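Researcher: I've been going back and forth with a colleague about how Transcription elongation factor SPT4 homolog 1 might be arranged in three dimensions. Neither of us has a model we trust, so I'd like an independent prediction. The organism is Arabidopsis thaliana, in case that matters for your notes. Sequence below.
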Amino acid sequence: MGEAPAQIPTSFGHELRACLRCRLVKTYDQFRDSGCENCPFFKIEDDHERIVDVTTPNFNGIISMMDPRRSWAARWLRIGKFAPGCYTLAVSEALPEEMQFICQQARVQYVPPKRI
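Model: Here is an independent structure prediction for Transcription elongation factor SPT4 homolog 1. You can compare it with whatever you and your colleague have in mind.
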């Protein structure tokens, strides 16, 4: 996944959301316009109602990754194979079952948060 960098958030206010699968952080409008660079199989740029299903405004911390493949922090957070960009340290919500099924169909691993 992701050689090209993901969009960085254009604002760091309350409109930020994090992808529940890969934890990429962008604004609602950025997810609406271009989807999630790491999770194209969700097709959220085509189905705007899905943004609420696969992203959350409830997350802890942000880390920016310029070269995730070489970063020990990216490996520790399990985001080393994702596109360079801004990621949350943790999300507290699980991906809905329907979206987990989409991950299975796409043969993409989903690791739910440890504490919900």
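Researcher: What would you highlight for our discussion?
Model: I'd start with this: The longest strand covers residues 59-65. After that, consider the following. DSSP finds four helices and five strands in the chain.
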